[in-house]
Write a structure and sequence with these properties.
Blueprint lengths: L1 H11 L4 H15 L4 H12 L6 H14 L2 H13 L5 H17 L2 H18 L4 H12 L9 H10 L3 H7 L1 H22 L10 H26 L5 H19 L5 H35 L1 H10 L5 H16 L4 H18 L4 H15 L7 H10 L3 H24 L2 H9 L3
Helix pairs in contact: 1-2, 2-14, 3-14, 4-7, 4-13, 4-14, 5-6, 5-12, 6-7, 6-8, 6-11, 6-12, 7-8, 7-19, 8-19, 8-20, 9-17, 9-18, 10-21, 11-20, 12-13, 14-17, 15-17, 16-17, 16-18, 17-18, 18-20
Amino acid sequence: MLWIAGLFGVFLLGIPISFSLGATTLAGLLGMGLPLEVIVQRMFTGIDNFAFVAIPLFILAGNLMAVGGISKRITTFSEALVGHWPGGLGMVAIVASMIFAAVTGSAIAATAAIGALLISEMISKGYSRAYSASLVATAGSIGPIIPPSIPLVVYGVIVGSSIAKLFMGGVIPGLLMGFFLMVANWLISKRRGYVGREKRASAAELRQGLKDAVLALLMPVIIIGGIVGGIFTPTESAAIAVAYALLLGGLVYRELSWKKIAHAFIEAAITNGVILTVLMTASLFIWFMTVKMIPQSITQSLLQVIDTKWGALMVMNIILLIAGTFIDTTSALTIFVPLFLPLVKTFGIDLIHFGVMVAVNLTIGMCTPPLGVCLFVSCEIAGTSLREMFRDLVIMLIPLLILLLLITYVPAVVTWLPDFLGL
């Protein structure tokens, strides 16, 4: 337990997560007298998993969508669909984020792409900078819930669950997340006078918007349909997403230049490098905890004060919500999932239910200071500060917390669709 306390002490010093995990775990393993070759081998085998190939590919697909005109057409169609509602541009941001999420699985990619297209327009139409940034950041958090989902890929590898089943478990919670945010946006817009477009889009405008976006809208249908139909694996779907984005942006929309493609690849490589470094050191951390039986010790300690499944879920939720504000999603998954796994199994909590609950928890963390990466992206685009955003951000987090409680205590919200599909 002293070692765990030391690890979190290093986190609080602001040292990057990968270095914190690597250094503290290395110290513990060397203290056990293990040769360095074994340590290096464990780090390599930790990322030597075919499922992890999906992570850089989904990130790349999101980057290509952003620069290839795909996200722009999705946004234009969303505006024709819901732009006339109260808070119209806010509704557009939420709907576009949901569609974008169904291809990339990344909150940061969704926030950056949709924010770049809509935040300046929202501000020009009278929305406050703080509200525009808060809404786009929370809407972007839908990305890791609606399949495909990068956090669920990482979780599935850690616990050995079916990634396809996890993906389907995230469908209903992701749609509900979008619905709850739309209700919140509608209520706030009514109160503040954020109006939509003057008149509803005509049938001709809707047809034109659909015609322009139909190939982009087919992207999530192909990916999710292919996974459910067993045509390809979740990892293969990531490669298909990249190929589709290249063909659509380059040959159909003709908005992809070699310069844009190179930039998309470089950005994906940088992001993936950070994630893989965390996964390597985290795999070493997980192995060390297993050898020292740390998860079992923590479980025994918690069982002394928790005697029900629902109490265990509440305690884990609170810990994850707090952790998500300080630790990035990948690191939090690799640290806390192995710690909680014995407790989850003790109370017979469904692993699919638990996985989606963890993902929702940590995506809320992506919208919460001080480490809310989606906030930093939307703040930069909107030209505002976290301090100015705080009030609006708290309001927009309320529907997400309500959804988290619903998912936690009504497991069927997560498990019904995978069971119905026979996964």
